[in-house]
Amino acid sequence: MVRCNRCGNENPSEAFVCAFCAAKLKTESIERIKYFERPEKRWKRPQGTLTRFKQVFTNPSELFWDLRYDEKHRGGGYVLLIDAALFGLLGLVLTSKITYSVTFWQQGLTSLSTFVTFFALGLLYHGLLFAFLSLLFRMVAIRGGGKKKSHSLMAMLYSFFPSIVGNAVSILVLLIALPAVPFSQTDLFTALTPLFQSPAWIFVDIINLVIYAGWVPILAALCIRSLHEISTTRSITGCYIVGILVGLLLIITRGTFFPSAIAP
User: Fold this and answer.
1) Domain encompassing residue 55
2) Is 70 inside a domain boundary?
3) Does residue 30 carry a pLDDT above 60?
4) Disulfide: which of 36, 113, 155, 252 matches 73 by Cβ 3.0-4.6 Å?
């Protein structure tokens, strides 16, 4: 057992924070860096969703400290919805690059159906991706230690907020850089080939590589550290192992990195 210097209560020897007054019981070397510092104050009430979104950039340690005490983990679902909406906008960008002659009302109906379809696909894709990665982060990071409390996907969704930034930047890149192609009913595949072979997709893949192999793992590590009360070093190491594997998978599967390797 470890006695807290602030309140005098005893805590388990593996605890990093006092369960009674939230004072730090141990300080790791990496926690001397302010970005990784564990918050040391009493929790009063949950912060607003917009404040939490801001803290993704400014103070993620405090964001996930707050989520540790907020049992409902409010606001995480908005990350998924925003990503789905951006996926819908991606569909609009792609269809806007295909030139064909239609009336104003036909164009409006096509745009609406495209957005709804891509929104549904984005919701399914990001939901499955975030659920799989969050469980993978947790399994690797807390292996052999930490509190075995139930996993919270809603809290972990804040770790994937960088995907919103990545999707928004990707849409902007594609909107500017993708070429316009004519619609062809006779040979649609050939007509659309310049659209999907554009160098703009290289920038999109690089953005995704930075997001999922660099930024997301560090947020996931801070989230898991707070929810399961484990070592900061162990959490970061475990999450970056997953991040590196995700990055390698992206490099291997995406032809934009090694186009000659998959060329017929």
Assistant:
1) 43-74+129-262
2) yes
3) yes
4) 155
